[in-house]
Amino acid sequence: MTTMKTFELLVTKDNADEKGIATIPSMLSQITGTMEECREDAMTLRNTVFELFERPKVDDIYNLTLVESRKTSKGSEEKAIVTDQDGHEIGCCTSEWSTLAPDQGMRRPDSTEYIRKFFKLLPDEICKTGLSIRLELRFHEEPLHIGDISYRLMTPRSDTYLFSAGTGDNVICTAALTTE
To answer: What burial letters (b/e) apply to 7-17, b meaning 16+ CB within 10 Å?
Structure first.
């Protein structure tokens, strides 16, 4: 595996819970935001799978390292690892990117906003436990002029949460979270 880029991310008090540990949504938003900002092309995030095994504390630096990128028929796929300040792996991410459709009526979804909304719907204990999580996100193109977005959370099993966001028949984002 050839390392492509490494980014240092800091856990601040604003991104931590009352115990001083990074919140899951803040870490996922930082990771997704960093990956989107470092794009040198006009691609948008389509699908991503995050796995977090541990969370750093306030004032800790953790690293996001893009380790692999390959072209696909629809765009590209990137793999990243997340390590703590001592270099121990605390998470990983695989993301698929594609170009936006030329349709002028669509825009790039705000992936970090949907992550935050999803976690606001979850029971508090999910975000406060030290459990490992696996989050699969799928983004769809978002209409330029969207009305009221509805958010839905379903719990088919005690360790699984399903999320969807959309307007009418238009699904913007779906997610599945499992805990261990």
So the answer is: bebebeeebbe
For residue 98, give both structure tokens. Answer: 């594609």
pLDDT tens digits for range 8-57? 999 999 989 888 999 888 898 899 888 888 776 667 778 899 999 999 99
Closest C-alpha among 139, 65, 143, 63 to residue 97: 139
pTM across the whole model:
0.81
What are the residues whose beta carbons fall under 8 Å from the beta carbon of 145, sequence distance 6 or more?
A: 105
User: Which of 108, 126, 35, 109 is CA-nearest to residue 78?
Assistant: 35
Q: Count how many Cα atoms sit within 13 Å of the Cα of residue 24 in the half-sphere of its side chain.
A: 27
What is the residue-wise DSSP string for the chain? ----EEEEEE--GGGB-TTSBB-HHHHHHHHHHHHHHT--SSEEEEEEEEEES--PBTT-EEEEEEEEEEE-SSEEEEEEEEE-TTS-EEEEEEEEEEEPPS-TTEE---HHHHHHHHHHHS-HHHHHS---EEEEEEE--EESS--PPEEEEEEEETTEEEEEEEETTEEEEEEEEEE-
CB-count burial class (<10 Å; 0-12, 13-18, 19+) for 32: buried
